[in-house]
Design a protein that fits this description.
The structure is a homotetramer of 216-residue chains.
Chain A (H helix, E strand, L loop, with lengths): L8 H28 L5 E6 L6 H5 L6 E6 L15 H12 L4 E7 L3 H10 L4 H4 L4 H6 L15 H20 L3 H8 L4 E8 L4 E6 L4 E4 L1
Parallel strand pairs in A: 1-2, 1-3, 3-4
Antiparallel strand pairs in A: 4-5, 5-6
InterPro entries (chains A, B, C, D): Beta_CA_cladeB, Carbonic_anhydrase, Carbonic_anhydrase_CS, Carbonic_anhydrase_sf
Cofactor (chains A, B, C, D): Zn(2+)
Organism (chains A, B, C, D): Cribrihabitans marinus
Chain lengths: 216, 216, 216, 216
């Protein structure tokens, strides 16, 4: 039998608060979205981290953003081997079915996944090296980029640079998907790399000409 | 070279609106979250669908919810084969590192992924059967549950029931992860199955005693 | 023969500037809007005044706002007499065809139309009294509300109050349209009264409980 | 009592974004516009359609364009009968009070109003024939021009040609206003007919010598 508990009452209260306010305010729009289907303009790939303000930053929850969240906002390379690939499935659906106009990778400061990868690369996290470590095997996606930040001595600077690299790794891997590359080539899709500072509320975007992240 | 464009200006405007209001209002809290780390009370697994009100329903974006979003809010079974498993990595991180108290699977109405699985099971979506279809291979996770809804004639009812089954399949698969089963066994973690009606703003939870979903 | 001149070159330059930037940035979205049709969430009725920031305030020009602009943002009462009624046609199309969720009347400071109506009511604008004066006859819509501000001595205060009244007159007249009243009654449409201060960039909304305009 | 709701919160966020950026950037200019009054160089008559890029195309919202927007950018003929004529009032104010130098009629592709008129002319829209249909009675302004496009077999071509005719009908009707004809005659006002392709971002102007619309 499926194991489950009722919703904790602190969440029941919040739900009713939402129902009486935001839902009430947007009822007509939500009903139209339900009956007519979604038509999101952008897909956002961000981290699961509870501190990432992905929806509030852009005013989401209104049908405009198709949102995939995983550890460290990573996209694995194209690998059509018949296995379950959740991130690849989300990207495929957004680009080929929903035909979003923008694909945004949103990284962030103080990322635990990125820090774990640094620890692993420095030989300080043997538990993440185990074959059974899902987090370790997931962060393997970012591992090849460590060389580019290995020499940075300041730990905060190194983490920040590696968080930037995580965004770039995802953007680069996105281009290995034929349907992404095709949509970018024919001009129907643009890619965007962002990084947000959780504490300061800052937002930076990657500028390929400058070769670095620049404040919005 | 990494391919990327600057952030579209309509999103720059929204970011600045957030910065001047929600960020300003919560600045002190966000800074504490940045310096002291996240301590989310719950993990939510929901769909990427742009119409799912996951953050607004519970007032998220404030450090309380570790959120993983994928197509059809699915959790694959435990499979420690050394490959990249994004969903499994997110669950592992939430349960073993963050030690969340609640693990919530949130399904929803009008789910395109679930509908695609129905079409596939009825032999009406050959393109999803292809080995290269990431969406098809991802929805394979739900496929074994189709028998339980195959006889429902009304298409809307069948979709709704299968959306419910997607939540139950995820809950069942979660229990195949040793660290989840252990945390549930020692009482440090509870599992919750929810389903929300996008248009009506309704919320239902799975009640194992009743064997069905009940309105909150 | 139709009389017309080519576009002045200063506007040709601006067009090319837009084409190379904002259009380029939003090309995919604009193409989808063209092929799939508009689905605006709100209608805005504002003034023709060149200083009203209606589109930039809300980030319009992206398919979200159906915008009608006329002198003093007025809506005449329901009058299905078979004549040409541009404002009534726009409201009818927005509510019955596009089924917008919100109908927003946006008034503003320093409104020339409202000032003309004050002058007319004070007997200081005989030219506006002429049957041939389109502006005078249009401002007749607001005239019955003058009693409520006639006693205000300070000219600036009086103008501001009458600008507020123009918004309320439009909201009241909107409710005389059967299809507006029906949509409001069944909860599928909400009405909103706003007023913006051009110089200060302020924005106020009408609060029926308070019986006055309140800063956003 | 006047019926109204507060501004939906997604628009409050956008307003604050504008206030913190575009307003801040242009504050001094906006204050001058408020204290010294508007002095627009041109009037634009365009459609209410949410997809028409009227302000962004020319960089409006800065005091330069007096903008009237109605269904299908139509101008009715001169009819000083004492009734409420919103479009005529806007034209009168722009030409006689503001003394704009240019009067621009901007048509566009995929125009729902024009399509409705085609349906009506082909006997396929009985609901638009009703006396109570404001949209139908408004589109009567364009109806006499249908003969010129009736023989075009391709539906897209026919719609495009009729959209062009809507611009010409408005230009012709503008010349029936004595104050417009006078200003054109003494060289203080020029008329311009434009048509924009929503998806492609194209812009065409009417050339009377060529007798057709030509790309800018």
């Amino acid at each position: 039998m499926t194991i489950a508990q009722p919703l904790p009452s602190y969440l029941v209260q919040r739900y009713h608060g939402w129902k009486a306010t935001a839902y009430q305010e947007n009822k007509t729009w939500y009903r139209r979205l339900a009956s007519e289907g979604q038509r999101p303009r952008a897909m956002v790939i961000s981290c699961c981290d509870s501190r990432v303000h992905v929806t509030s930053i852009f005013g989401a929850d209104q049908g405009e953003f198709f949102i995939h969240r995983n550890i460290a906002n990573l996209v694995p390379p194209y690998e059509p081997d018949g296995d379950h690939h959740g991130t690849s499935a989300a990207v495929e659906y957004a680009v080929t079915v929903l035909k979003v106009a923008h694909l945004i990778v949103l990284g962030h400061s103080q990322c635990g996944g990125v820090q774990g990868c640094i620890d692993m690369c420095k030989g300080k996290a043997p538990e993440l090296e185990a074959k059974e470590s899902f987090v370790g095997r997931w962060m393997d996606i970012l591992r090849p980029k460590f060389d580019s930040v290995a020499d940075i001595e300041d730990a905060t600077q190194q983490a920040r640079s590696f968080e930037h690299q995580a965004v770039l790794a995802s953007l680069d891997n996105l281009m290995t998907f034929p349907f992404v590359a095709d949509a970018v080539a024919d001009g129907s899709l643009t890619l965007h790399g962002l990084w947000t500072d959780i504490g300061e509320g800052g937002l930076e975007y990657y500028d390929p000409d400058a070769g670095r992240f620049i404040a919005v």
